[in-house]
């Protein structure tokens, strides 16, 4: 699946969730939600690395939590790109891949 198609799939899930829970997905909401997800990723990273309480979760569960939170951050970035009509593949190519060693 390419990035745009994945963004479409994530968008459909997000829209369904928002409708079900009466969430207004404004531009601010998309950005604030990203901040929330990054905070949760940071918390999961700290627990995974033994620098925060484990909340009774074993190492495998903490690893699963970290991976899930990383996925949430990525999905929120996809949602913002879709909302603002930004082609992430093109932007990554423009910003990052120009530095790719030849």
Automatic annotation (TrEMBL):
It comes from Leifsonia shinshuensis. This is Pyrophosphatase. Signal peptide: none annotated. InterPro entries: MazG-like_dom. Residues 30-91 form the NTP pyrophosphohydrolase MazG-like domain. The lineage of its organism: Bacteria, Bacillati, Actinomycetota, Actinomycetes, Micrococcales.
């Amino acid at each position: 699946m390419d990035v745009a198609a994945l963004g479409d799939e994530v968008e459909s899930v997000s829209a369904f969730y928002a409708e079900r829970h009466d969430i207004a997905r404004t531009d601010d909401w998309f950005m604030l939600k990203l901040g929330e997800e990054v905070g949760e990723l940071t918390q999961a990273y700290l627990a995974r690395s033994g620098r925060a309480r484990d909340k009774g979760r074993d190492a495998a569960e903490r690893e699963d939590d970290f991976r899930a939170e990383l996925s949430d951050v990525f999905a929120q970035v996809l949602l913002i790109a879709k909302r603002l009509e930004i082609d992430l593949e093109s932007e990554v190519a423009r910003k990052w891949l120009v530095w790719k060693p030849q």
